[in-house]
Amino acid sequence: MTVDWLTRTAAHADARAAAAGPADLARVVRARRRPARRVHLAIAALAVAAVAAVLVRVLLGDYVVALADLLPILRGETLPDAPGASFIVMEAKLPRALVGLLAGAAFGAAGAMFQTTLRNPLASPDIIGISLGASAAAVVALTFLDAQGIWLPAAALVGALAVSLLMYAVGRGTALAGQRMVLVGIGVAALLSSVIQFVMTRTSVQDAQAALVWLTGSLARATWPVIGLLTVSLLVLAPLLAVCSRWMRLAELGDDLSTTLGAPAGRARLGLVVAVALAAVATSATGPIAFVAFLAGPLARRLCGGRASLWAAALVGAVVVVLADFAGDYLIPDVNLPVGVVTGAVGAPLMLAVIITAGRAGKA
Amino acid sequence: MSSTQTADRECRTASAEATLLAVESILVGGGRGARHGGAGGAGGSRHRTPALAALLPVLLVAAVVASIVLGSKAIPLGDVLQVLTGHGDTVADRGIVEARVARTVVGVLVGAALAVAGAAMQGLTRNPLADPGLLGVNAGAGLAVVVAIAVFGVGSLSGYVWWAMVGAGLAAVLVHALAGLGGSVTPLRLTLAGAAVTAGLASWSSGLLVSSRQSFDAFRFWQVGTIGGRGLDLVVTVLPFFAVGLVVVPLAVRQLNALALGDDLARGLGENVLLARATVALGVAVLCGASTALAGPIGFLGLVVPHVARFVVGPDHRRIIPACLVAGPTLLLAADTLGRLVAQPSEVQAGIMTAVLGVPFFVLLVRRGRMASL
Amino acid sequence: MTSATLRPASVAAAPALRVRGLTLSYDGRRVVDGLDLDVPAGEVTVVVGPNGCGKSTVLRGLARLLRPSAGSVRLGVDGSDDDVWSLRPKEFARRVALLPQSPPLPEGITVVDLVGRGRHPHHTVMRRWSAADDEAVVRAMRATGTLELAERHVEELSGGQRQRVWIALTLAQETGVVLLDEPTTYLDVAHQIDVLDLLRDLNRRQGTTVVMVLHDLNLAARYADHVVALRDGRLVGSGAPGDLVDEEFVARVFGLGSRVIVDPVTGSPLVVPASTHQQSGPSS
């Protein structure tokens, strides 16, 4: 009786195997490639959008530069009919556009990395204390040490890294280390924002307001040395990010499965370290720009047909920051709003839209 | 199609809830086995550490006394009693004593309100990280005060009070309405909507402040929460709101216990989940609004105190809320007193001291919390 | 189809996993204490025991998810004999696969994509996705009957289909040993049988060593070649279900009075519990 039963189920399996043919391979390959193509398309479209955004930022605005004039200006020539154009493009418009592009990309990629690795939509550098680490250090440097030029981003970088180290130390060697890191980050963020508020009451109103502009996130301090710092950092971090994006695909499956699929223990956290570094560098250059890290991931996911892509998230971040900076400068006549005010004001409703549509889909 | 989308939503909320659960197991892990036991009321809701629970009122009395006696100038207890009993004409520091008494009253009210609101908020969202500020009230009050200063030229504490109250209330309503749009109010959506509204309102505040130096100068002192410098007349203005909140929320402990078991089970226990949520949320908004109006935004108290209370008395809201009522003022007064002592002759505001004292504790909680295993 | 091909490899063969003195703790709390255990190669081993006995923890110990505070786990597939902690992560992942109880599902992922992630341990920095990977995915999906679902989003699938896809992911890993933590949780009875049939077929056809945790003693007795029973983190019995599972065993492991009869369908032992309320164990 036992053997009879076994034979029957084995035959059942044979029937399954017999149904397979060479067409299966083609089908699987097709099914694998189709969503990937969508992601590639989205990335290509976003790259075009990023270039377009930079051009808009550089060419349009109060001082319009013709596209034909751009190349000579970039080559360092002075235009005979508009001698000031060269200075405005090279010292104001282009640096702003480039810092926005680079910092936005860094924010976007860092946010997406956090959200995917920690599988928590609330996890982003602005919420878990890294931005505040940078902010607190920058505010102290700005108000008490009178930091200028490259020293301000340097101080911010040190602050962000100090917070990251603390988070890492607390999470180290415990189960659910990633979750613990987030919790500690939230606590530290609360502490640091108190420190910032305290400092703001202990300094002159001029210093405090300069600090406020920095805290809001602004591209006004964009200079070529800052661009250099950003570029070098991104050149170092991007390859690491590429490696991490493969682990990210595993990290999505949870700690247990990713470990048994051969991701070395703690490797997911290495991805977080890269993300922290990215966020730290970007924050040091521009101050925390609200919502970019938070929203780039979900927006990119939508554009990619539901798949997570670090590159798409980076490009979304870049496009958003460059365009928001443009809008902040020219949307309201005679008022220059820092980019962070624009992303915050626009980002909040956008995030609500994400929440609401997710709810609608669920109700349908 | 609809079934696939439902499945899709289930997955998403499942993963989000899993995150919250992991968070909970880290934070509430100290509660050991009794974690889920006491919510129904019957089993498991015994005092875990009765001695510690009995200590809470003693600590409160100590904190009250310290808050009146200690400071940049210490006042003998005898002088304090003389002033309080109306025979203080001969006491040289009468003004100081009266200011300290007012300060202590503010501390007790605000501490109790924020701690109770925090416990209710954590129960309401089933999120151990929920802070009353999450409902958007702090950011709402902040923006309203900024508008009052920058647009309407309001310049006094008593002038801010009403703006802060209204701003906090509107923000709370907005968060709740947004979380409920296109679906039911779930803990996760409430949390997300709160975070979004908070960040959005803060951006608008920054936008106004960046372009007006005078407004910023006034606002930067308001935005550091402090319990000092408020007269008793101001307290009386806001007192009715504290009274409403401190009655509504403690009356809803049974509902909170039911909600802690999840919406479905709460419904099964005969609870009107929507009504329960709305009632508690209203209470939280009133408490936070009144606190922020009176003292400015004070962070972290509402997050930390409920965890302390839970650690001392277990997971039953019928015990947590009273424990918060006692532990909240204790912590706030202690923080405030310490703030006066560390930076003499100046002071560090209570809103900063609560974070300075609360964060190490919080980190310890995260570090030591037990993981759910097996 | 002769019955010879259906029988598992000889029990006398070297064990696939050899556990000696294994002690596992969470945050200093000892959950598994000095466990000795042999997992026979090429057989279906089922770990049973009451709630909280350390079943899943043992599985985590075998899968290298939890570093033992004492003792060792040695892996002996294909004539090798290595301490599992001496292997590099990917090397281990090419030999042992684990399906956790309810792994998080990435948003918006398709069936093919999810199954394909099981190929990770076969990739290196230089060698990414290749035709061999596609073939392995086809094999895994064919074996689990999920080919028809290839383009679908996993979120859209029913519980039973979804569990098949997860199993396909572990099969795509192409390991000699597959560990599964409660693979039938949340499934209705038809899908439970379906999943367990699938796993046994895999074992019979490819000689894969299967170790799973099940809380249903009857399903364990029905599908196991080898049953391992735990209580309070210690081994309280192991052997073929026909030899091991009797009324005294059920009482010892679960503290439950019962009758054990012969399953009319499979011939395996069938436990009919007595009520715990009126301690009426008929055999005492």
Keywords for this entry:
heterotrimer; B: 374 residues; mainly alpha; 15 helices; globular; C: 6-stranded mixed β-sheet; 4-stranded antiparallel β-sheet; 10 helices; 12 strands; disordered N terminus
Report on this structure.
The complex is a heterotrimer of chains A (364), B (374) and C (284). In chain A, 78% of the residues lie in helices and 0% in strands. Chain A is mostly helical. Chain A is globular and about 70 Å long. Chain B has 374 residues and is an all-alpha fold. Chain B has 15 helices and no strands. The model of chain B is unreliable at 1-19, 27-47 and 370-374 (pLDDT under 50). With 284 residues, chain C is an alpha/beta fold. A six-stranded mixed sheet of chain C has the order 6-7-8-3-9-10, with helices on both faces. Chain C has a four-stranded antiparallel sheet with strand order 2-1-4-5, covered by helices on one side. Residues 1-12 and 280-284 of chain C have low confidence and may be disordered. In chain C, α5 (131-144) runs antiparallel to α6. Chain C starts with a helix and ends in an 11-residue tail after the last strand. Chains in contact: A-B, A-C, B-C. At the A-B interface, α7, α8 and α14 of A face α1, α7, α8 and α15 of B.
